[in-house]
Design brief:
Length: 418
């Protein structure tokens, strides 16, 4: 008799529970080790959970819509020879059908019991917390949406489909990321490459941020001539510690000082768009480009750290980001994000807000500018800045005041060293 192994939920970081939004295997399926078996969703991201063993799926112990926590059983795998003979394949298919019917009956009973226990009316909208939050941010009543998943569960795409229908009938509403594309193969050879999971999650997050927050971008240039001189002097002292000192820690210190002056930038707008949630801490997200896509680790309590300490921590988290070793906790809690294209090029750009933050700072490549000072021509090093903010929380005057204060602080390097 072949050995059976139970696959359980192991490390889901600091989440108490996560939703099962997709089951990728069925009884009788042959799976390989590290093959994804279910898709889990928290209120922050989606993740595929892999099998620890290779074998044949004997039982699936969960259903779409279930909440699971660390230690909960997902599936049972029967180890041993998978199957090569037609007889074994046929037997597996018959067993799968029988077991799926049994599972469906158990799911129905389980859901009825769960509804009764929690006093849930089956006629009311059935959706995960993430979907409810998404609908709330769009100002949508979920009772009007028909769910397409098992037991009428409402998925995010159901909300999007409902909005798309509303747009087509009344001609107004929020843009829908789902659209019909032409058949590009009619015009020539094509190749479709799937996005990895990180890029899929990032794309949905950016789409959501663009839909919810009306973006405004303010541009300016900071004179960082003196700051660059100070950086070069300090850089020589830090070489013995093998720490690379870039301009970024100076920008972070200046940005925090501005957040302390203009508290609306250090806030998030509530779901009902009736108040601002001001934060009494100063954590900055730093966009890092990795082989898998863009990630945003968070440096905490920047206001309490010296420039050298920030530089050291930046090096550590950037290394973890590129190795794919950041934990969800290390990417949560940011107050405002900095994204820099200075190492690549460009003059200015319009970054998208890292929602639910209300502002993001874009930094481009510095350049030399000739200026007249006391009838003499001088070379000054200028840094292009792009400040994007949520116009629901911040008006244009505040945006101009903030970026003006930021460029002044970047020009006064000694105030940053305090």
């Amino acid at each position: 008799m072949n050995e059976e192994k139970t696959i359980v939920v192991t490390d889901i970081e600091d989440f108490d529970e996560v939703d099962i939004i997709e089951i990728l295997v069925s009884p009788g399926d042959v799976v390989e080790a590290n093959q994804s078996i279910v898709t889990l969703e928290s209120d922050k991201a989606m993740m595929e959970f892999p099998s620890s063993y290779a074998g044949v799926v004997k039982r699936v112990n969960v259903s779409v819509g279930d909440k699971v926590k660390q230690g909960d059983e997902l599936i049972v795998i029967e180890m041993g020879e998978t199957t090569n003979s037609e007889d074994k394949v046929a037997t597996s298919e018959v067993e799968a059908i029988t077991k799926e019917q049994s599972i469906e009956e158990n799911v129905n009973k389980k859901q009825q019991t769960k509804n009764k226990k929690n006093n849930i009316n089956p006629d009311k909208a059935y959706a995960s917390p993430a979907v409810r939050k998404y609908a709330t941010e769009l100002g949508l009543d979920l009772d009007k949406v028909t769910g397409s998943a098992e037991h009428g569960r409402i998925l995010k795409q159901d909300v999007q489909s409902y909005i798309q229908k509303r747009i087509s009938t009344v001609g107004i509403g929020i843009a829908n990321p789902q659209y019909i594309l032409p058949d590009f193969s009619e015009f020539g050879e094509i190749e479709e490459k799937p996005l990895n999971k990180l890029r899929q999650v990032s794309a949905k997050h950016l789409q959501h941020a663009w839909e919810v927050a009306p973006h405004v971008t303010q541009f300016d240039n900071a004179d960082i001539t003196e700051t660059e001189l100070a950086r070069n002097q300090l850089k020589e002292k830090m070489q013995s510690q093998e720490i690379k000192l870039t301009l970024l820690p100076f920008i972070m210190k200046a940005l925090v000082k501005c957040l302390q002056e203009y508290s609306d930038f250090n806030s998030s707008i509530n779901s009902e768009v009736t108040s601002l949630i001001h934060k009494k801490y100063y954590h900055l997200g730093i966009a890092v480009d990795t082989p898998r896509g863009l990630v945003v680790p968070v440096i905490r309590d920047v206001d309490q750290k010296k420039i050298t300490e920030i530089a050291k921590e930046l090096a550590e988290v950037s290394s973890l980001a590129r190795e794919g070793k950041l934990t969800p906790r290390q990417m949560q809690g940011g107050c405002m994000t900095i994204t820099s294209l200075g190492g690549i090029g460009g003059s200015h750009f319009t970054p998208i807000i890292n929602f639910p933050e209300v502002a993001i700072l874009g930094v481009s490549r510095s350049y030399t500018k000739l200026v007249i000072n006391n009838d003499e021509i001088e070379e000054r090093l200028m840094l292009p800045l792009s400040l994007t903010y949520d116009h629901r929380a911040i008006d244009g005057v505040a945006g101009v005041n903030f970026i003006t204060s930021l460029k002044n602080k970047l020009s006064d390097v000694w105030s940053l060293m305090i």
